[in-house]
């Protein structure tokens, strides 16, 4: 399976992480969560007190942190300057700030270069927003996962304690709007991508659909 790259893009809550990890496990592939890399960069910027409303300030500092992302689908890891940030990058402060950091072209250039290094010769499922369009436009399999706004918010609020479906839906709509309308590498369906609406499907059904697409496309 080396050489194979599966690009898995879509908005937040569309099921990308669970599906990507399940597909990677089923095919014996590595797994890369590029969103975790943008979150880790954001965590570092917040800790350093960088003014995230100032893209020039973010651009000036984004070369400093050392990001290391592990690719085991059973336990993906993420470290910044040797610190394990897997927990902190899921906190509300990072989630609220990440889209502003990810909109800065210098941040994207740096992280896309790291992602391509990790992808290397392939054998990997890569999830994000711009994998099929920018990071790996030649990926032989490109999937664009969607789900209704309500289903996406329901899934996210089930993962987080103390968060209502309505609050989640509003927060996700804000993040998706920022991610889809930014100038640098916006969220979009890449050329050649296959759209899969997961609203009415179980996780196992979505994984099964992706595996059959992979079998057909290879
Ligand atoms: O996937 P996740 O929700 O963890 O991604 C967090 C944020 O990182 C997204 O809302 C988006 O702003 C950014 N991102 C991106 N490009 C990617 C992956 C994530 O801009 N390839």
UniProtKB/TrEMBL annotation:
The keyword ATP-binding appears for this protein: yes
Subcellular location: Cytoplasm
SUPFAM superfamilies in the record: P-loop containing nucleoside triphosphate hydrolases
One term of GO molecular function: ATP binding
Gene3D superfamilies: P-loop containing nucleotide triphosphate hydrolases
Binding site for ATP: 10-18
Any one of the GO BP annotations: pyrimidine nucleotide metabolic process
InterPro entries in alphabetical order: Cytidylate_kin, Cytidylate_kinase_dom, P-loop_NTPase
Residue stretches making up the Cytidylate kinase domain: 6-214
Annotated EC: 2.7.4.25
Single GO cellular component term: cytoplasm
Protein keywords: ATP-binding, Cytoplasm, Kinase, Nucleotide-binding, Transferase
Major enzyme class: transferase
Region spans: Disordered: 155-178
UniProt catalytic activity: CMP + ATP = CDP + ADP; dCMP + ATP = dCDP + ADP
Family label: Belongs to the cytidylate kinase family. Type 1 subfamily.
Protein name: Cytidylate kinase
Protein species of origin: Nonomuraea jiangxiensis
Lineage of origin: Bacteria, Bacillati, Actinomycetota, Actinomycetes, Streptosporangiales
Gene for this chain: cmk
